[in-house]
Amino acid sequence: MFLDEVQNIRGWEKFVSRLQSKVKFVISGSNAALMNSEYATALTGRHIPMRIFPLSFSEYIFTKGINQPDMFVTESRAKIRALLNDFINFGGFPEASLKKDSYLLKAYFDSILFRDVIPRTNIQNSAGMEALSRYLVSNPGKPFFFRKLIPVTNVKHEDTVKSYVDILEKAYMFTLIPRFNFSIKKQMANLKKIYPADTSFTRFSGSLFSEERGRLLETIVCNELKRKNFDIFYWKNERGKEVDFVLCEGLKPIALIQVCERIEDEKMMKRETEPLLVAAEELKVSDLILLTDITPNFRAPAGISVKSFIEWLVE
Hints:
The chain is of the alpha/beta class. The chain contains 14 helices and nine strands.
């Protein structure tokens, strides 16, 4: 039995609990209410939660008729690059993104916020929650302190801001990325980064004052890593050197990824790769990847694999 948007029916979990010994249920919904611990308690040991993401880039180009992309054919490469630009701008929500429907993409964000998040969490300060959401989608990948967001949300306490961000994350609107540290306590105290669940949120529901293509590419990489079920962090040392993504199994770092829109000269190559080498030595990681929009003609330092975004996204 398939039940869609069943969270709108009071007591649905009791109905499922009574029948699931005889009937296999597939239950779907458009918000995080279905992951509520109350339902998990009612269905203890008898449910497997599964998050459905917007389209990945591989899925996106598949809908455009490209099954096995050949980057060595000029025409194919040009078409895929054009599709990457569309994917960056319109994201991966199937109907709206494929039709490039900016009105519908705006409506998705508003619908999640005003129909799912605010009513279901009984937030009284809806204007503050909206202001926070739009601020966060406008600043993907930028570190923040919770207390610095107090003026944005017009609340009195840092804990309230934390609860708002937690609600948005549980509703799958954002992914929160901690700064890596082997100490859990220090991880909790450090600045966080946050990325929207889809680039269309930033494009159509935020306020970008510049092209910010690099941060949109970071957003795509973040969501691809979450799709692949990695534990992800960012890394930064006391001298300010920073790596965009640390991939971990638990608290064991296994790979480092640096994202840079384009490498224009050897000076820029050094600036982007030096943090990778420093972090690799500190974290004892050998799998180092530099992702860039256009692969440069000059070599990266030994041990660093340079890949184009398209190459990495369609692997």
